[in-house]
Amino acid sequence: MAIHGFRAGQWVIYRKPKTSVSPGSRAKDVRPAAKGESYSYVVDKFWVVTEVLADNRLRLRTRRGKEHLVDAGDCLLRPANWWERWWFRRRFLAVAESREDT
Fold first, then answer.
1. Pairing assessment for the beta strands 77-79 and 67-71 based on DSSP bridges
2. I need a labelling partner for 29 at 20 to 30 A (CA). Which of 13, 16, 64, 102 fits?
3. Is the dihedral of CA 15, 70, 34, 40 positive or negative?
4. pLDDT digits over 41-92, tens only?
5. Which helix (H) or strand (E) holds 13?
6. Which residues is 21 bridged to in the sheet?
7. pLDDT for the residue numbered 95
8. Alpha-helical segments (H) within 1-102
9. pLDDT of residue 102
10. CB neighbour list of residue 83: distance below 8 Å, 6 or more residues apart
11. Which sequence spans correspond to the domains of the chain?
């Protein structure tokens, strides 16, 4: 079953919002806090859809095997386009080949 065009095994990009005093090299859309003590930014996360749930949520797996439940309509989530699948293929393959530590 596909919701919002997502299906199991699909490569997706999640723009995860973060805050810290020193953003990393992959930080995008960096903005200083009002008083300048920290920065807010987003980092692209390269995840794989493991399951499409009936309640309009997706189960996503990270490179280290963690799982996240995200609403299929979340504006921070999108399918990777062909260019991103080619350019970031190593990151996606690392997620696809990862196993959960149980």
1. unpaired
2. 64
3. negative
4. 999 999 999 999 989 899 999 888 889 999 999 999 999 888 887 887 888 8
5. strand 11-20
6. none
7. 75
8. 82-87, 89-97
9. 36
10. none
11. 11-97
Tell me the C-alpha to C-alpha distance, in Å, between residue 43 and each of 54, 65, 92: 28, 18, 15
Cα 41 off chain centre by = 14
- Which residues sit opposite 3 in a β-bridge? 6
Q: Read off the amino acid at residue 85.
A: R
Distance CA 31, CA 37 (A): 11
The pTM (predicted TM-score) of the whole model is 0.80
Cα distance between residue 69 and residue 93, in whole Å: 20
Nearest to 6 by CA among 65, 69, 63: 69
53, 66, 62, 54: which is closest to 12 by C-alpha? 62
Q: Which residues contact 90 (CB under 8 A, 6 or more apart)?
A: none
Q: Is 85 helix (H, G, I), strand (E, B) or coil?
A: helix
The residue assigned the tokens 């293929």 is 89
